[in-house]
Amino acid sequence: MKSKIFLYLFIFAALIALYQFVSTNNMQKAFYSDAESLKTELSDLKDSLQQAQLKILDVQYFSLENNDDALAYYDHLKLKDPARYIEDKLLETNENKGDNPLIPYEGMESDFKINKIKIINHRWLLADFSDGKYWGDLIIKYELKDDLGVDFTLMDHLLYTRSN
Fold first, then answer.
1. Exposure of 125 by Cβ count < 10 A (0-12 exposed, 13-18 middle, 19+ buried)?
2. Neighbours of 140 (CB within 10 A)
3. Which residue among 2, 57, 59, 70 sits deepest, i.e. has the most Cβ atoms within 10 Å of its Cβ?
4. pLDDT of residue 150
C-alpha cells in the first residue's frame, strides 16, 4: 500500500512537471511571437515615420524659412523671423472695417478676410480667404522695404464655387 501511494505520488508529481513544462513552452512561444510581431510593427512604424519626414521636407521646400538665398535678402534688416513679420503685416490688412482691400470680391455672407498664409520666398506668398461660407485663394507679390514697411500687390486670385 505504501508503495502504491509513492507510485501515485510520483505519477502525480510527473504530471504536474509535464503540465508546467508544456505550459512554460507555450508561454515562451507566445512571448517570442509577440516579440516578433512588435519588431515587425516597429520596423513598419520607422518606415512610415521616414516617409512622413520626407513629405514634410517636400512641403517645406517652398517656404521662406527654409530658403537661405531668399532669407539673405533680409539679413541687413536684423529681423528675428521675417516670415512671421510679413504674415503679421498681411493680417493687419484684415483689421480694416469691411472686406480686406487685397481681396477683389465683396463678401456675400460677411466680410472677406485672409485666413492662412504661406510665404513662398522673398517676393511671393499664397493666401487663403473666406467670409465663413465662400472661400478662395490669392497669389500676392510683396516687397519688404528697408524701413520695415511692406507693400502687397495682388497678382492673381480665384473664388471657389459652392457645390451643394
1. buried
2. 21
3. 70
4. 93
